[in-house]
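FAQ
Q: What does a multi-component entry look like?
A: The components come first, one per line:
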Amino acid sequence: MNATIERGVRTIQGTVMFTDIVGFTEFNALRGDEDALALLAMQERIVRSALSGAARIVKDMGDGLMLWFDDPCVAVETGLTLQDRFEQEAMSTDAPLWVRIGVHTGRQTMRGDDLVGHDVNIASRIMSLAGSGEVLASESTVVGADGRLPHVEFERLGPVVMKGIPTPINLYRCERAA
Amino acid sequence: MERRRYDLPVAATLRLQSRSGRVHVIAEARDDVDAETDSLEAFSEDGGRTLLIRSSRGGAKPLVVRCPLETDVVVGTQSGSVKGEGRLGVVRVTTMSGSIQVESAEEADLRTMSGSIEVGACRGSCRASAISGKVSVGSADAAAANTVSGSIKLDRVHGSVKARSVSGSIEMRASGDSPIAVKTVSGKVRIELPPGTEPATYFKTRGHVLCDFPRGDDCRIEAASLSGNIEVVPA
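Then the predicted structure of the entire assembly, as tokens:
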């Protein structure tokens, strides 16, 4: 982990990923709390099994998770692996494990085990623009991957003007190359 | 009101940005680009292959851009609606809260968080993602559509279809020779196929299933819903 301390604030460089289960509220209303909790547990189990190295779950966001990676390549690769596993799980059960994922690389400020800051907010906004089953990443993540993911295609979606974010963010959809 | 004219190199992309204003792109028989709004800035990017036009501040006037036919267009707005008129090239639009309307595109990737998406014709693949708004596509070669509470209506899709909605209904008319994968949580599903089609069907729902076709292998249809009804009927 590359950490720096400026004026008593500890910042790190890394990639933040947000996941979110689409339709969780409707599923909860239809199937009740027990099934809803099982769906959340299913998501967390799959995510934990896909993490390696320095990657970690930062916190539970209710129906999603916030993750941190020290390498944008690992973040993108994990995002795609997660979508594959969510899809397989959703097909083998009747649980709608439909997850959208947003990824952004930048600087994060540590607050205990939590991470906060502008780049964390951007990752969250990116996730909110993803459709279920998609992995969207910012340009900083794609540049950070630096051509090290030859089996991944990055389709440029263009600059997005996001609420509260002064500079437009170039977004990419990540997909496994055919 | 500010109005400017630009030369657009051949095979160039037009990139339009507006924080809060509406964006209206008109593809027509012309060689240059004409942009008009309250106040705008323009830059050349990607070694001259991309022309970026930015509405400098949200104003009352929409950003209206006239461009050559089949121009590739990328639009990013925070809250303005986006309208594409005429025969455009590859169109990519992302808006946080506006609606999106595209008359004709070579390919399309359109996403909004709270507005609706309406596509007339897409000659290639069409990808549309909305949260609360509905998605409507007149015709497309292939389609992938996602909504949470909005409905999805695909009038005529020649190739493969992937559609997913949480509570909105999904309705489509497909060619009957390409795969269809449809999922909802509570929305109903209606798929129309040409008479005589013999699809390989895989249904999963706690609702009712109606399929008016004999099983065969003309196309694979996967339709799943937690509680919604599924209908596969002749067009």
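Q: Is there any commentary attached?
A: Sometimes. For this entry: Strands of chain A lie at 2-6, 9-21, 56-60, 64-69, 99-111, 114-116, 135-138, 152-160, 169-176.
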